[in-house]
Amino acid sequence: MNAKELEVAGIEFTVTALDAGFFPITAAEIPEYMADPIGWYARQYGVSRERVEVWQRFVDSDYRCAATTRRGTRCTLPAEEYYRLSVCDFDPAWDGFCRRHQPKVGQVGADQAA
Ligand SMILES: [Zn+2]
Prior knowledge:
The protein has one domain (3-112). A two-stranded antiparallel ribbon has the order 1-2. It is mainly α. It has 4 helices and 2 strands. The chain starts with a helix and ends in a 54-residue tail after the last helix. The site of zinc ion (ZN) has 8 residues, from loops.
């Protein structure tokens, strides 16, 4: 049985979202998702592929702070309020840092401040 036949039988498909929830997907869309999941997610969220990749690295790190310590190792603290972040509003210039390493206004380049 292929996905189309299952769909005709009333079975619905979903793809797990990258932050919370699910996206419904039709049988016809499944090959597109399988061929390029990152591109598919980017279109669903209306964000760039880079944003999806940055977000996935953040999730894969277990939501750890992105800063490098003075010793040159990755900070091991959890990012501030990571549970409130989502793919769409995640800005790697500002988000994904612990309280100590969170950038202050003025430390981030003007082009990213908008
Ligand atoms: Zn940190």
